[in-house]
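As agreed, record minuted below.
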Amino acid sequence: MNRRQASKQETRQLILTAARLLFARKGMEECTIRDIAQAAGVSPASVVVHFKSKTALLEEALNQDIEKTLAALIVSMPEEQGLLERLLHLATGFFQLYDQNRSLYRALIRHTIFEPTGETPHMTKLSERYIQFLAGMIEEEKARGLIRPDVDSQVAAGAIFSLYLGALIMLFRQPEMPLETVAGVLAAMTGQYLIGVARNDL
């Protein structure tokens, strides 16, 4: 890496650090590009050069924590428990992360979930990894003879992910709702779905 590249990387990191602090303190809606530039000690134009929008900056600013959470949840997966419990381990781990600052993560989901995949690369990659991991769990259950062999693992993973998103919407839309209640609703919905794909000839 030459001096110019190092300088660009340093500037980018200064912007990200400032954005994380300001987003957490003020929220996305109240935080401006000018605020972030001032806190980072750079010009507003420099922020735009590195991040084409405030949404792109928010996505990258939060991505590190989200990636760390997913990695930690996979490592701590309770393999001795049933499929439903393992699925809830993943979901509630993310709920706990988002519950630390519901308004900030609400803004992230609101500004990324309906955007084209090319516009939200970090959230797109995260969703794909999550679904692929779920599909792998379904395949393992099929190999154990606990889920019908005709079940399409990718479709099942997509359905389970959709239930997770439904519970996530509930978490964000009803800030007064306790985390445990949201997790309980997700457990009921996911458990009902799993009954539909389970082998019933055992």
In short: The chain has a mean pLDDT of 91. The chain has two domains: 1-51, 53-197. Residues 11 and 45 are 12 Å apart (CA to CA). The domain at 53-197 is CATH 1.10.357.10 (Tetracycline Repressor; domain 2).
